[in-house]
Amino acid sequence: MSTAALPAEAAPRAAGVTLPRVVHSEWIKFRSLRSTYWTLAITMALTIGIAALACWGAVSRLDRLPAAERAAFSPAEHSLRGYFVAQLAIGVLGVLVITGEYSTGMIRASLSAVPRRLPVLWAKSAVFGAVAWVVSTVACLIAFFVGQSILASKHLDTTLSAPGVTRVVLGMGLYLTAVGLLSVGIGTMIRNTAGGIAAVVGVLMLLPLLMEALPSSWQDNISPYLPSNAGGALTTLHQGPHDLAPWTGFGVLCLYVLASLIGAAVVLKRRDA
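Given the sequence above, the corresponding structure tokens read:
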């Protein structure tokens, strides 16, 4: 075999690695894992179950609610209380999407099949983001309708057509999807499941708690720009005096997602598998 024939044979193999094919490969891997179904099921169960529990609790103690708390009651937000825990489940799955391959060594086969590496990250993000959005949005819609059916017994319910309610319900699906993609980026940079999950918990939950130790003037200027607080503006019906506007806050969260994926791309290109 002549050396001149090598590029001609290598060309078809290189041409066979296209982004749609990498996406299809990642889809097969994603749906082949048992942890995928368990984590998505947990996300839905937490979103719907906690919504039902929270609305049932509101109905049962309605007569004992202070007047100020009753006036501030938001039926739409109350039926989505499960997001606080559900974001951890979707975040864990986002980390596992990439760290699972590092723990088993499969990442070496993936990167050998796609030498340019970055299409693997984009394909994983696209597959995970699409699935996370569908599952999260369906879970939030079910949680909303379950919650409103419980609140209706005391005439506390609302509808999707009420001002701002559609944005809150569908925005929760977008928020959970963004959290998942942020976790994919963090997991890719850390490349360790326990470390990635710890980092996600720290970013989403510990940072807001640590902010409470700062002077109130610092909190007012910094807290609204934390990832969970910024994204949460999209899922809040009535913003506080220091909160970001709904879509502005979600835009800030998207910038965090973009930064994490850029960092993940740099790490993926520079480090050995």
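The chain has a mean pLDDT of 88. Try to locate this feature in the token string yourself.
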